[in-house]
């Protein structure tokens, strides 16, 4: 399970910020890289229930909400200081979040793998079944193994940032570990690539990762082109019920919301408005 880590598939003039982040991520994990066997990944499954993340998004009759724990970002700067990710997770769950997305990148987003682990352990103690996505810039199966060990139910695959062989290796690793894969796209060509990899969950990032600007029209243009058996997620740029309604009208089954929920005066009121959009 050792893909080529030097993909030459990116237009550098359009990839400024994402290229910077991916370059850093590859350097950051370089010392951790080793062979990860399918047996090792499968042994992590234990009593986990593969497909939990997808199922949790399919079940709601209305719009499903993935509440994201995000302390800061390159575009927004500091969003909210939180003493413990578990406290924010508790707010989301109490407000009715269907799934959580937990940023584990430290350099650009102020998160950590410990955040994911702490939240997962809290859910286990409380006997809560709320699937968590490890939101990070995934490039190697070792990160998938870490995600599974920390209690994740899904990983993120950013199509624009990866070569096809890298996506395949990450997806295979996730399958062996019993994790779902959320493929993130921003264009028609990226949608084609995700579909070619038999993606079951595809998210349209309304934020252009090259320049970090958001526009909901990306979801409105791309989601109607999804195959009917793919669960569509609209990510970023969703602040209120009107935005959620636009996403749902475009065909989104779920929305991923971070900054708005992190800053909300009333998490439950905003979450409720999303669910009823």
Question: What average pLDDT do the residues reach?
Answer: 90
Low-confidence stretches: 1-15
The total beta strand count reads 12
Strand content: 15-25%
Detailed description of the structure:
By secondary structure, the protein is an alpha/beta fold. The protein has one domain (40-275): Aldolase class I (TIM Barrel), CATH 3.20.20.70. The chain has helices at 16-29, 38-45, 52-58, 85-95, 113-125, 141-149, 164-177, 188-196, 217-222, 241-250, 259-263, 267-275; strands at 64-69, 72-73, 77-78, 99-103, 132-135, 154-158, 180-185, 201-205, 207-208, 213-214, 231-235, 254-257. Strands 1-4-5-6-7-8-11-12 form an 8-stranded parallel beta barrel, surrounded by 8 helices. It has a two-stranded antiparallel ribbon with strand order 2-3. The longest helix has 14 residues, at 16-29. Residues 1-15 have low confidence and may be disordered.
What's the layout of helices and strands?
Elements: H1 16-29, H2 38-45, H3 52-58, E1 64-69, E2 72-73, E3 77-78, H4 85-95, E4 99-103, H5 113-125, E5 132-135, H6 141-149, E6 154-158, H7 164-177, E7 180-185, H8 188-196, E8 201-205, E9 207-208, E10 213-214, H9 217-222, E11 231-235, H10 241-250, E12 254-257, H11 259-263, H12 267-275
Parallel strand pairs: 1-4, 1-12, 4-5, 5-6, 6-7, 7-8, 8-11, 11-12
Antiparallel strand pairs: 2-3, 9-10
The gist of it:
With 277 residues, this protein is an alpha/beta fold. Helix content is 42%, strand content 17%. It has a single domain (40-275), classed as TIM Barrel (Alpha-Beta Barrel).
């Amino acid at each position: 399970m050792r893909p080529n880590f030097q993909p030459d598939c990116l237009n550098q003039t359009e990839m400024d910020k994402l290229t910077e982040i991916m370059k850093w991520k590859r350097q950051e994990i370089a010392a951790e890289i080793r062979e990860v066997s399918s047996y090792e990944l499968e042994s992590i499954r234990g009593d986990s229930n593969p497909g939990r993340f997808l199922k949790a998004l399919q079940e709601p009759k209305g719009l499903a909400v993935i509440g994201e724990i995000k302390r800061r970002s390159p575009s927004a700067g500091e969003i909210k200081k939180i003493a413990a990710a578990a406290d924010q997770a508790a707010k989301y769950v109490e407000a009715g979040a269907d799934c959580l997305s937990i940023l584990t990148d430290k350099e650009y987003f102020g998160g950590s793998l410990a955040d994911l682990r702490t939240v997962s352990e809290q859910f286990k103690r409380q006997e809560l079944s709320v699937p968590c996505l490890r939101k990070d810039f995934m490039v190697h199966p070792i990160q998938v193994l870490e995600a599974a060990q920390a209690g994740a139910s899904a990983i993120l695959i950013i199509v624009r940032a990866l070569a096809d062989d890298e996506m395949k290796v990450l997806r295979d690793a996730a399958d062996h570990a019993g994790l779902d894969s959320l493929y993130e796209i921003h264009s028609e060509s990226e949608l084609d690539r995700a579909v070619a990899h038999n993606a079951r969950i595809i998210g349209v990032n309304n934020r252009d990762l090259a320049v970090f600007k958001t526009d909901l029209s990306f979801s409105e243009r791309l989601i109607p082109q999804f195959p009917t058996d793919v669960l569509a997620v609209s990510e970023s740029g969703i602040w209120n019920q009107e935005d959620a309604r636009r996403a749902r009208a475009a065909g989104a089954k779920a929305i991923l919301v971070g900054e708005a929920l992190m800053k909300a005066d009333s998490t439950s009121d905003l979450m409720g408005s999303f669910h009823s959009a």
